[in-house]
Design brief:
The complex is a heterodimer of chains A (about 425) and B (about 130). Chain A is built from 18 helices and 19 strands. By secondary structure, chain A is of the alpha/beta class. Chain A has a 9-stranded mixed beta sheet. In chain A, strands 10-9-8-11-12 form a 5-stranded parallel beta sheet. Chain A starts with a strand and ends with a helix. With about 130 residues, chain B is an alpha/beta fold. Chain B has a single domain, classed as Barwin-like endoglucanases (Beta Barrel). Chain B has 4 helices and 6 strands, in the order βααβαββββα. The chains are: A alpha/beta (about 425), B alpha/beta (about 130). The complex binds iron/sulfur cluster.
């Protein structure tokens, strides 16, 4: 069977134009997808059944027993951490938040180690953003700052920027200027009309220098800033000010570098400054396909986008305190439920060590690094292949993902609802 | 000499995100990208094993030349190898310093550990199933 307009559940671009061929049990062909999409849809490397570890031995366990044990571990804990969520649909994320609330635990999503600092900055100074469609149709200057779309969001350039012709930008490749700012001369940088190489840790200073020039105070810059020549800074500022519509996309090169949230604040304020001259927008390059959705879902239920602590009986949020890396580093949580992410691979070693120390449960279709750290893993259906639900694209547009066929595994929502029901009964709620 | 370790995504790392036990993931995630002149100076060839150390830990990686990097910079794609070197401090932001870890390097004959072995060193029990 051939299914058109399939949504790719890999990166935050959430491309919705894939054509997938299935034989009713597995996928046999993918059209329009990038390398990452092909791997995602064609690869079939699922964990077959729930597994549990006792001491040094792994064994298979029935789904019912796994669900009961997961609920018991969470009920036994004083300070459970529920982490992940960006690789599942909104409906499952919603059950997760309710589960955290009834347990009095902490729930956090992967923004904590990607665009958490961007969210902190947006909470301080707002977000002059727009949808990707606006960029495609209008932007004649695009900046990628600390982002490498060729490797991380391979179709971003072809769907929305350099290679995408738009309503007002008829010949995009010629008419749209591309600026790439990075510490490395990445593959994306090689495509740029202007590549700005910054010394590691120099983003804040370069953003401030650009702000000064745009403000008309260029004379305060007397020499190179963080490895960027004054001439280039003036050239880039001019290019931006002369744009009819400019769009900045920033990645983890800004959020993870010294300054973190303050880098993003500075970038947003540069955008604000540019809006005195022309129309400019700024948007984060969200990584996981539904990490934006986890922020939305957490927000509409609790008021906070990530790192939400229910220990006080009400929602409390304080990045640096209620964020997963800090909670694990302080060895504070005494159980962890990992859903649709891999902190074993993506958190610093000290955090992985604590995950191994406490009972960690993982709900995930695949064997990953966290598998080796956990006590129990429940495989689930993959959203966008054998499960469906709502996701949010990197620009905040909700898109319904599709189920292509019935698989052998339950969805995240189903497993979480069953765990929730047991917890609710035990709590007498 | 102290190097700055930068981490980030690569398309190969992304392609194997659901297959972290695969040998190709192991090769990609444990590749230590270095400026070729730095490699020369440290007597390293492509594939040489290198013990990389930071304040947070040590791990053996495999050198891979990269002209995308300046001298003094190292790149390892995000994953369990890089995270053996990144410290857990977040400076009150929730976000570790993934892009600017200070590290030192020395040649070694020790082999590069697999992902399951790295997790065993963190206290886990490898699942081989
Ligand atoms: S760019 Fe992202 S969403 Fe689009 S096909 Fe590639 S991995 Fe999928």
């Amino acid at each position: 069977m051939r299914v058109e307009d399939v949504v790719c559940t890999f990166c935050g671009c959430l491309c919705d134009d894939l054509v997938i061929e299935t034989d009713g049990k597995k996928i046999v062909g993918v059209e329009n997808g990038c390398t990452l999409a092909n791997e995602k849809f064609m690869g079939d490397h699922r964990l077959k059944s729930p597994i549990r570890r006792e001491g040094d031995r792994w064994s298979e366990v029935s789904l019912n027993d796994a669900i009961r044990e997961a609920a018991e571990i969470l009920l036994d804990a004083d300070r459970p951490l529920l982490y992940g969520w960006s690789g599942t649909h909104g409906e499952a994320q919603s059950v997760g938040v309710h589960l955290a609330e009834i347990l009095g635990g902490v729930i956090d999503n992967t923004s904590t180690v990607c665009h958490g600092p961007s969210i902190m900055a947006i909470q301080e100074v707002g977000h002059p953003g727009c949808t990707l469609g606006q960029v495609k149709n209008r932007a004649d200057v695009v900046l990628y700052w600390g982002a490498n779309p060729i490797e991380a969001h391979p179709r971003h350039l072809s769907r929305y920027t350099t290679y995408a012709d738009g309503f007002f930008v008829k010949n995009s490749f010629r008419e749209r200027k591309l600026v790439v700012v990075d510490v490395r001369e990445t593959e994306s940088a090689a495509l740029a009309d202007e590549f700005v190489r910054i010394e590691p840790g120099g983003d804040y200073a370069v953003l401030s220098a650009l702000r000064a020039i745009v403000r008309g105070r260029g004379e305060v810059i007397t020499g190179p800033v963080a490895g960027v020549s004054r001439e280039q800074l003036v050239r880039v500022a001019d290019l931006c000010m002369k744009a009819k519509f400019g769009a900045i996309f920033f990645g983890l090169g800004l959020t993870m570098s010294p300054g973190k949230n303050k880098n993003i604040r500075n970038a947003i304020e540069l955008t604000e400054e540019l809006n005195r001259h022309t129309k400019f927008t700024i948007s984060p390059m969200r990584g996981h396909w539904n990490v934006y959705g986890s922020n939305e879902v957490f927000c509409w239920i609790t008021g906070y986008p990530y790192a939400v602590d229910f220990a006080r009986g009400i929602a409390f949020y304080n990045p640096g305190e209620t964020t997963s890396v800090d909670i694990l580093r302080r060895e504070e949580c005494d159980a962890c439920l990992v859903v649709a992410s891999d902190p074993g691979a993506h958190f610093p070693r000290a955090c992985a060590e604590h995950l191994a120390r406490i009972p960690t449960i993982q709900i995930d279709p695949h064997v990953n690094a966290t598998t080796h750290l956990c006590r129990l893993q429940i495989p689930v259906a993959v959203t966008g292949i054998d499960a469906e639900g709502t996701a949010y694209r990197m620009d905040g547009v909700p898109i319904r993902t599709r189920k292509l066929f019935d698989g052998d595994h339950p969805s995240d929502t189903e497993i979480l609802e069953r765990i929730y029901a047991i917890v609710k009964e035990a709590k007498g709620a | 000499m102290t190097f700055v370790l930068i981490t980030g995504r690569t398309i190969v790392q992304g392609s194997y995100v659901e297959r972290k036990s695969h040998p190709d993931y192991h090769v990609e995630a444990s590749a230590l990208h270095m400026n070729p002149v730095d490699m020369l100076e440290h007597d390293l060839e492509e594939g040489s094993t290198v013990l990389v150390s930071s304040d947070a830990g040590k791990v053996v990686l495999q050198a891979r030349p990269s002209t995308l990097l300046q001298r003094g910079e190292l790149f390892v794609c995000l994953g369990p190898y890089a995270n053996h070197l990144v410290g857990p401090g977040t400076r009150g932001t929730g976000m570790p310093d993934f892009k600017t870890t200070a590290v030192t390097i020395e040649p070694t004959d020790d082999p590069v550990p697999g992902v399951a072995e790295l997790m065993r060193r963190c206290g886990g029990v490898p699942y081989e199933g």
